[in-house]
Amino acid sequence: MEEESSVFSFSSLATSGAYPELKPVILERRKTKDLSRLALARFANKAQRAIALPGEVNILLTGDSEIQRLNLQFRHKDKPTDVLSFPAGNGANGGDIAISVQTARAQSAQIGHDLLTELKILILHGMLHLAGYDHETDRGQMREREQQLRVELNLPASLIERTEPERISRRRR
After folding, report:
1. Phi first, then psi: what are they for 12, rounded to 5°?
2. What is the pTM of this model?
């Protein structure tokens, strides 16, 4: 059986010139009324510079059904998730990030902050994966870097910090 490539690109979906002054391209499947694409793009630009991630980054804002399809196709997990990252493997393109706004909205309500804050946390987490970090294998390096950047970028608890106790309890079972 041939292994499927993990490279995925939203570039063909991008609308040219949406925010020419910003590197990240934010793509929305459905308009989200309570969300500022400009605020997200500005944050993504700031995070990308803080991480020193070269190249263009495309961010797809979608729903649970599409992210579940991507998760199955590229990670062989048939369930929705909050964020997926697809590193480009070259300097010209930083890579692509897919975020489920549906899951992000539920997580933000559960945690007690707004949707924009949750999306920023997920963008930061996704960009760290694009930069080569992997919290599953790097012995805490991604966790440390995410904590540093969270403070620098004025974000609440990072995604890894929030989910770590859950992972530890699952391992013990």
Report:
1. -70, -20
2. 0.79
